[in-house]
Amino acid sequence: MIFNIQRYSTHDGPGIRTVVFLKGCSLGCLWCQNPESRARGRELLFDARLCLEGCNLCAQAAPEAIDRTLNGLIIHRQKVTVAHLDALTHCCPTQALTVCGELKSVEEIMAVVLRDRPFYARSGGGITLSGGEPFMQPELAAALFRASREAGIHTAVETCLHVPWQYIEPSLPYIDLFLADLKQVAEEPFKQWTQGRASRVLENLKRLAAAGKQMIIRVPLIQGFNADEASIMAITDFAADELQVREIHFLPYHTLGMNKYTLLSQPYYAPDKPLKATALLEFAQQYACRKGLTATLRG
Q1: Secondary structure of 191-234 in the HEC alphabet?
Q2: Could you report the per-residue pLDDT of 166-203, keeping only the tens digit for each?
Q3: Do 94 and 233 lie in a common domain?
Q4: Residue where one domain finishes, among candidates 72, 100, 128
Q5: Measured between alpha carbons, how far is 182 from 200 in angstroms, rounded to an integer?
Q6: Are residues 215 and 291 in the same domain?
Q7: 270: which of 31, 49, 89, 260 fits an S-S bond (Cβ 3.0–4.6 Å)?
Q8: What CA–CA distance (Å, rounded) separates 205 from 270?
Q9: Is there a contact between 217 and 237 (Cβ–Cβ < 8 Å)?
Q10: Which range marks the domain in which residue 177 is found?
Protein backbone atom coordinates (compact mmCIF):
# COMPACT_ATOMS: atom_id res chain seq x y z
CA MET A 1 0.00 0.00 0.00
CA ILE A 2 1.66 3.22 -1.19
CA PHE A 3 0.38 6.77 -1.54
CA ASN A 4 2.91 8.40 -3.84
CA ILE A 5 5.96 7.88 -6.02
CA GLN A 6 7.97 11.07 -6.37
CA ARG A 7 10.59 11.17 -9.11
CA TYR A 8 13.52 13.59 -9.47
CA SER A 9 13.77 14.29 -5.75
CA THR A 10 16.97 15.92 -4.47
CA HIS A 11 16.21 16.16 -0.74
CA ASP A 12 15.86 12.52 0.30
CA GLY A 13 19.39 11.21 0.05
CA PRO A 14 22.32 11.80 -2.30
CA GLY A 15 21.82 12.63 -5.95
CA ILE A 16 18.59 12.44 -7.92
CA ARG A 17 16.22 9.98 -6.32
CA THR A 18 12.86 8.30 -6.70
CA VAL A 19 10.98 8.36 -3.40
CA VAL A 20 8.36 5.69 -2.77
CA PHE A 21 5.95 6.64 0.01
CA LEU A 22 4.46 3.70 1.92
CA LYS A 23 1.33 4.01 4.06
CA GLY A 24 1.17 3.16 7.73
CA CYS A 25 2.99 4.54 10.77
CA SER A 26 3.32 3.42 14.38
CA LEU A 27 3.64 6.99 15.69
CA GLY A 28 1.12 9.80 15.97
CA CYS A 29 3.38 12.85 15.87
CA LEU A 30 1.35 15.98 16.50
CA TRP A 31 3.26 17.88 13.80
CA CYS A 32 3.17 15.12 11.14
CA GLN A 33 3.43 16.67 7.69
CA ASN A 34 1.97 13.60 5.96
CA PRO A 35 -1.11 12.71 8.04
CA GLU A 36 -2.52 10.86 5.03
CA SER A 37 0.32 8.37 5.50
CA ARG A 38 -0.50 7.27 9.04
CA ALA A 39 -3.38 4.85 8.40
CA ARG A 40 -2.47 1.56 6.76
CA GLY A 41 -5.51 1.54 4.49
CA ARG A 42 -6.92 3.92 1.90
CA GLU A 43 -8.51 7.21 2.98
CA LEU A 44 -10.63 9.97 1.46
CA LEU A 45 -9.20 13.45 1.05
CA PHE A 46 -11.66 16.26 0.39
CA ASP A 47 -10.73 19.79 -0.69
CA ALA A 48 -13.89 21.91 -0.60
CA ARG A 49 -12.16 24.66 -2.59
CA LEU A 50 -12.17 22.44 -5.70
CA CYS A 51 -15.69 21.09 -5.33
CA LEU A 52 -18.08 21.99 -8.18
CA GLU A 53 -21.40 23.44 -7.06
CA GLY A 54 -24.24 21.25 -8.27
CA CYS A 55 -22.05 18.22 -8.98
CA ASN A 56 -23.44 15.08 -7.40
CA LEU A 57 -21.23 12.34 -8.83
CA CYS A 58 -19.61 11.31 -5.55
CA ALA A 59 -22.91 11.20 -3.68
CA GLN A 60 -24.30 8.99 -6.42
CA ALA A 61 -21.26 6.70 -6.24
CA ALA A 62 -21.41 6.35 -2.45
CA PRO A 63 -24.86 7.47 -1.27
CA GLU A 64 -24.53 5.80 2.15
CA ALA A 65 -21.33 7.72 2.93
CA ILE A 66 -21.69 11.09 1.18
CA ASP A 67 -24.47 13.69 1.27
CA ARG A 68 -24.78 16.73 -0.96
CA THR A 69 -26.47 19.55 0.98
CA LEU A 70 -27.08 23.23 0.37
CA ASN A 71 -24.00 23.94 2.50
CA GLY A 72 -21.76 21.60 0.55
CA LEU A 73 -20.52 18.05 0.78
CA ILE A 74 -20.81 16.01 3.97
CA ILE A 75 -18.66 12.87 4.26
CA HIS A 76 -19.66 10.31 6.87
CA ARG A 77 -16.18 8.83 7.21
CA GLN A 78 -17.23 6.09 9.63
CA LYS A 79 -19.56 4.73 6.93
CA VAL A 80 -16.99 4.63 4.12
CA THR A 81 -16.37 1.07 2.94
CA VAL A 82 -13.85 -0.53 0.60
CA ALA A 83 -16.54 -0.65 -2.08
CA HIS A 84 -17.11 3.09 -1.65
CA LEU A 85 -13.40 3.77 -2.01
CA ASP A 86 -13.29 1.71 -5.20
CA ALA A 87 -16.27 3.63 -6.62
CA LEU A 88 -14.80 7.03 -5.70
CA THR A 89 -11.24 6.47 -6.93
CA HIS A 90 -11.83 7.99 -10.38
CA CYS A 91 -15.12 9.72 -9.68
CA CYS A 92 -14.39 13.40 -9.07
CA PRO A 93 -13.69 15.49 -12.22
CA THR A 94 -11.87 18.24 -10.30
CA GLN A 95 -9.98 16.00 -7.84
CA ALA A 96 -11.73 17.72 -4.94
CA LEU A 97 -12.38 14.23 -3.62
CA THR A 98 -9.49 11.81 -3.94
CA VAL A 99 -8.61 8.41 -2.54
CA CYS A 100 -5.20 8.27 -0.89
CA GLY A 101 -3.55 4.87 -1.07
CA GLU A 102 -3.01 2.34 -3.82
CA LEU A 103 -1.97 -1.29 -3.87
CA LYS A 104 1.07 -1.81 -6.08
CA SER A 105 3.23 -4.86 -6.66
CA VAL A 106 7.01 -4.80 -6.34
CA GLU A 107 7.23 -5.17 -10.13
CA GLU A 108 4.94 -2.18 -10.74
CA ILE A 109 6.90 0.04 -8.34
CA MET A 110 10.26 -1.02 -9.74
CA ALA A 111 9.07 -0.31 -13.28
CA VAL A 112 8.74 3.36 -12.24
CA VAL A 113 12.03 3.36 -10.33
CA LEU A 114 14.02 1.88 -13.20
CA ARG A 115 12.91 4.57 -15.64
CA ASP A 116 15.41 6.97 -14.11
CA ARG A 117 18.40 4.67 -13.81
CA PRO A 118 20.55 6.97 -16.03
CA PHE A 119 19.93 9.89 -13.63
CA TYR A 120 20.92 7.76 -10.65
CA ALA A 121 24.16 6.75 -12.34
CA ARG A 122 25.12 10.32 -13.23
CA SER A 123 24.20 11.92 -9.89
CA GLY A 124 24.90 9.15 -7.39
CA GLY A 125 21.19 8.89 -6.67
CA GLY A 126 18.81 5.97 -6.27
CA ILE A 127 15.65 4.88 -4.50
CA THR A 128 14.44 6.11 -1.11
CA LEU A 129 11.59 4.53 0.80
CA SER A 130 9.61 6.98 2.91
CA GLY A 131 6.19 7.20 4.48
CA GLY A 132 4.57 6.91 6.91
CA GLU A 133 7.03 4.41 8.24
CA PRO A 134 8.37 2.09 5.50
CA PHE A 135 9.17 -0.70 7.95
CA MET A 136 5.48 -0.99 8.85
CA GLN A 137 5.36 -2.99 5.60
CA PRO A 138 8.51 -5.06 6.21
CA GLU A 139 8.02 -7.58 3.41
CA LEU A 140 7.42 -4.91 0.78
CA ALA A 141 10.33 -2.82 2.03
CA ALA A 142 12.75 -5.75 1.93
CA ALA A 143 11.57 -6.80 -1.54
CA LEU A 144 12.01 -3.30 -2.95
CA PHE A 145 15.44 -2.88 -1.42
CA ARG A 146 16.51 -6.30 -2.67
CA ALA A 147 15.28 -5.60 -6.20
CA SER A 148 17.03 -2.24 -6.21
CA ARG A 149 20.30 -3.73 -4.99
CA GLU A 150 20.11 -6.39 -7.69
CA ALA A 151 19.61 -3.61 -10.25
CA GLY A 152 22.69 -1.79 -8.95
CA ILE A 153 20.70 1.13 -7.53
CA HIS A 154 21.70 2.98 -4.35
CA THR A 155 19.14 2.49 -1.56
CA ALA A 156 18.07 4.75 1.30
CA VAL A 157 15.24 4.83 3.81
CA GLU A 158 13.60 7.66 5.75
CA THR A 159 12.51 6.10 9.01
CA CYS A 160 11.37 6.94 12.53
CA LEU A 161 12.58 3.46 13.62
CA HIS A 162 9.60 3.02 15.96
CA VAL A 163 9.04 -0.60 14.94
CA PRO A 164 10.14 -4.01 16.24
CA TRP A 165 13.70 -4.86 15.20
CA GLN A 166 12.46 -7.90 13.27
CA TYR A 167 10.67 -5.51 10.88
CA ILE A 168 13.99 -3.83 10.04
CA GLU A 169 16.34 -6.80 9.98
CA PRO A 170 15.24 -8.38 6.65
CA SER A 171 16.12 -5.15 4.82
CA LEU A 172 19.52 -4.58 6.44
CA PRO A 173 21.67 -6.29 3.79
CA TYR A 174 20.17 -4.15 1.04
CA ILE A 175 20.15 -0.62 2.55
CA ASP A 176 23.04 1.74 1.84
CA LEU A 177 21.85 4.72 3.91
CA PHE A 178 19.50 5.31 6.83
CA LEU A 179 17.98 8.79 7.13
CA ALA A 180 16.95 8.18 10.71
CA ASP A 181 14.80 10.47 12.85
CA LEU A 182 15.97 11.20 16.37
CA LYS A 183 13.18 13.39 17.67
CA GLN A 184 13.87 13.25 21.39
CA VAL A 185 15.80 11.12 23.88
CA ALA A 186 13.58 11.86 26.90
CA GLU A 187 10.75 9.38 27.33
CA GLU A 188 7.94 11.61 28.63
CA PRO A 189 7.94 14.35 25.95
CA PHE A 190 8.41 11.71 23.27
CA LYS A 191 5.30 9.88 24.46
CA GLN A 192 3.27 13.07 24.85
CA TRP A 193 4.06 14.39 21.36
CA THR A 194 4.32 11.15 19.34
CA GLN A 195 2.29 8.54 21.28
CA GLY A 196 5.35 6.28 21.13
CA ARG A 197 8.35 5.09 23.15
CA ALA A 198 11.72 6.80 22.81
CA SER A 199 13.45 3.69 24.17
CA ARG A 200 12.37 1.64 21.14
CA VAL A 201 13.89 4.18 18.75
CA LEU A 202 17.12 4.53 20.74
CA GLU A 203 17.59 0.77 20.92
CA ASN A 204 17.09 0.38 17.17
CA LEU A 205 19.56 3.19 16.51
CA LYS A 206 22.16 1.44 18.68
CA ARG A 207 21.59 -1.81 16.78
CA LEU A 208 22.06 -0.06 13.44
CA ALA A 209 25.28 1.52 14.70
CA ALA A 210 26.52 -1.86 15.92
CA ALA A 211 25.74 -3.31 12.50
CA GLY A 212 27.94 -0.65 10.90
CA LYS A 213 25.13 0.91 8.87
CA GLN A 214 25.63 4.39 7.46
CA MET A 215 23.26 6.85 9.13
CA ILE A 216 22.39 10.49 8.86
CA ILE A 217 20.48 11.63 11.94
CA ARG A 218 17.57 13.97 11.31
CA VAL A 219 16.12 16.15 14.07
CA PRO A 220 12.79 17.91 13.48
CA LEU A 221 12.87 20.90 15.81
CA ILE A 222 9.43 21.67 17.25
CA GLN A 223 8.73 24.48 19.70
CA GLY A 224 7.46 23.10 23.00
CA PHE A 225 8.83 19.63 22.22
CA ASN A 226 12.56 19.74 21.57
CA ALA A 227 13.43 23.23 20.25
CA ASP A 228 15.53 24.16 23.27
CA GLU A 229 19.23 23.97 24.06
CA ALA A 230 18.97 21.14 26.61
CA SER A 231 17.06 18.84 24.23
CA ILE A 232 19.37 19.66 21.31
CA MET A 233 22.44 18.91 23.42
CA ALA A 234 21.01 15.59 24.63
CA ILE A 235 20.05 14.51 21.10
CA THR A 236 23.40 15.57 19.65
CA ASP A 237 25.33 13.88 22.46
CA PHE A 238 23.52 10.61 21.80
CA ALA A 239 24.18 10.85 18.06
CA ALA A 240 27.87 11.62 18.53
CA ASP A 241 28.76 9.55 21.60
CA GLU A 242 26.44 6.53 21.41
CA LEU A 243 26.02 6.18 17.65
CA GLN A 244 29.25 7.81 16.47
CA VAL A 245 27.59 9.11 13.34
CA ARG A 246 29.23 11.79 11.25
CA GLU A 247 26.30 13.85 10.05
CA ILE A 248 23.19 15.42 11.57
CA HIS A 249 20.41 17.43 9.94
CA PHE A 250 18.27 19.90 11.86
CA LEU A 251 14.81 20.44 10.36
CA PRO A 252 13.05 23.56 11.71
CA TYR A 253 9.30 23.11 12.15
CA HIS A 254 7.03 24.42 9.40
CA THR A 255 3.28 24.33 8.81
CA LEU A 256 3.17 23.30 5.15
CA GLY A 257 1.22 20.14 5.98
CA MET A 258 -1.42 21.84 8.10
CA ASN A 259 -4.06 21.97 5.35
CA LYS A 260 -3.93 18.20 4.93
CA TYR A 261 -5.66 17.80 8.28
CA THR A 262 -8.61 19.75 6.91
CA LEU A 263 -8.70 17.42 3.90
CA LEU A 264 -8.95 14.48 6.31
CA SER A 265 -11.45 16.19 8.66
CA GLN A 266 -8.91 15.95 11.47
CA PRO A 267 -7.86 18.54 14.09
CA TYR A 268 -4.33 19.96 14.09
CA TYR A 269 -2.71 20.17 17.52
CA ALA A 270 0.82 21.32 16.68
CA PRO A 271 1.90 24.99 16.74
CA ASP A 272 0.23 27.12 14.07
CA LYS A 273 3.40 29.12 13.35
CA PRO A 274 6.72 27.89 11.94
CA LEU A 275 9.80 27.89 14.14
CA LYS A 276 11.60 31.24 13.99
CA ALA A 277 14.67 30.85 16.19
CA THR A 278 17.84 31.95 14.45
CA ALA A 279 19.94 31.95 17.62
CA LEU A 280 18.78 28.44 18.56
CA LEU A 281 19.54 27.07 15.10
CA GLU A 282 22.99 28.62 15.22
CA PHE A 283 23.52 27.02 18.62
CA ALA A 284 22.45 23.63 17.24
CA GLN A 285 24.92 23.84 14.38
CA GLN A 286 27.76 25.06 16.54
CA TYR A 287 27.20 22.48 19.26
CA ALA A 288 27.05 19.64 16.72
CA CYS A 289 30.27 20.87 15.15
CA ARG A 290 31.94 20.91 18.56
CA LYS A 291 30.90 17.26 18.90
CA GLY A 292 32.63 16.46 15.61
CA LEU A 293 29.50 16.24 13.46
CA THR A 294 28.75 17.80 10.12
CA ALA A 295 25.59 19.80 10.82
CA THR A 296 23.11 20.96 8.18
CA LEU A 297 19.94 23.03 8.43
CA ARG A 298 17.24 21.65 6.13
CA GLY A 299 14.09 23.56 5.25
Answers
A1: HHHHCCCHHHHHHHHHHHHHCCCCEEEEEEECCCCCCCHHHHHH
A2: 999 999 999 999 999 999 999 999 999 999 999 999 99
A3: no
A4: 100
A5: 11
A6: yes
A7: 31
A8: 26
A9: no
A10: 2-35+104-297
- 134 and 154 share one domain: yes
Report pTM: 0.93
Q: Is 125 exposed, middle or buried (0-12, 13-18, 19+ CB in 10 A)?
A: buried
Q: What gap in Å lies between CA 279 and CA 7, rounded to an integer?
A: 35
Q: What are phi and psi of 88, to 5 degrees?
A: -90, -10
What is the DSSP code string of 83-139?
Answer: HHHHHHTTT-TTSSEEEE-B---HHHHHHHHGGGHHHHHHHT-EEEEESS-GGGSHH
> What's the number of domains the chain is made of?
2
Q: Are 148 and 156 in contact (CB under 8 A)?
A: no
* pLDDT 10s digits, 66-112: 998 888 889 999 999 999 999 999 999 999 999 999 999 999 999 99
Cα radius of gyration (the chain): 20
Write the CATH number for 87.
3.30.70
Q: Nearest CA to 101 among 185, 183, 36, 26?
A: 36
